[in-house]
Design brief:
The structure is a single chain. The longest helix has 23 residues. The chain has 2 domains: 101 residues, Ribosome hibernation promotion factor-like (Double Stranded RNA Binding Domain); 61 residues, Nucleic acid-binding proteins (OB fold (Dihydrolipoamide Acetyltransferase, E2P)), CATH 2.40.50. Helix 1 runs parallel beside helix 2. Helix content is 20%, strand content 35%. A hairpin with a 3-residue loop joins strand 5 and strand 6. It comes from Thiohalobacter thiocyanaticus. InterPro entries: CSD, CSP_DNA-bd, NA-bd_OB-fold, RHF-like, RHF/RaiA. This is HPF/RaiA family ribosome-associated protein.
Length: 186
């Protein structure tokens, strides 16, 4: 980190043991992203007037070039957060997950969901038809492949989407669905 760790305690006294735990967790975050500029941590006791059953809230603010991440775990009804170390662990785990997600995004490892195969019905026979895809392929389908079972309402030119599989005589469509007003964009 370019700027030393900033640690604040609210509604509680400073604790060397808690500070050590926070510093260890903060140091480990650099394993997940090497460009962390600064790390600010707030450890807060939510109900100072209680003698037991006190819950802790921990907030971790990370600054990176072009990004600021905030990880916080509100204890809510989580009795584990009656232990300050459990609250620290959970907040830093959340920060780690955010850093990993940022790494994946920066490395372009984000999942891309492809549009399902689709095309237009161009040939209809009594029990089967053919779909012309946007890339020029010709896909066979049987009337039983139509999901809604409305084969008789199907017209040449209707847009459909389908699951593709290899049949005995080449590619064929299964689970053919007509596309209504919500068109698939490529």
């Amino acid at each position: 980190m370019q700027i030393p760790l900033e640690l604040s305690f609210r509604n509680m006294d400073h604790s060397d043991a808690v500070e050590t735990a926070v510093r260890e967790k903060a140091d480990k975050l650099e394993q997940f992203h090497s460009n962390i500029t600064s790390c600010r941590v707030i450890v807060e006791a939510l109900h100072r007037h209680h003698h037991k059953g006190n819950t802790y809230h921990v907030r971790v603010d990370l600054t990176l070039p072009g990004h600021e991440l905030v990880a916080s775990r509100d204890p809510g009804q989580n009795h584990a957060h009656e232990d300050v170390y459990a609250a620290i662990r959970d907040a830093f785990n959340a920060a780690r997950r955010q850093l990993e997600a940022l790494n994946h995004k920066q490395q372009r490892q984000v999942k891309h969901h492809e549009a399902p195969p689709h095309g237009r019905v161009h040939i209809l026979d009594r029990d089967h038809g053919r779909i012309q895809t946007s890339d020029g392929r010709d896909i066979y389908f049987h009337r039983n492949s139509l999901v809604n079972g409305e084969f008789d309402r199907l017209q040449p030119g209707d847009e459909v989407r389908f699951d593709e599989e290899m049949g005995d005589e080449g590619p064929q469509a299964s689970s053919v669905r007509t596309i209504g007003k919500h068109h698939i964009v490529e």
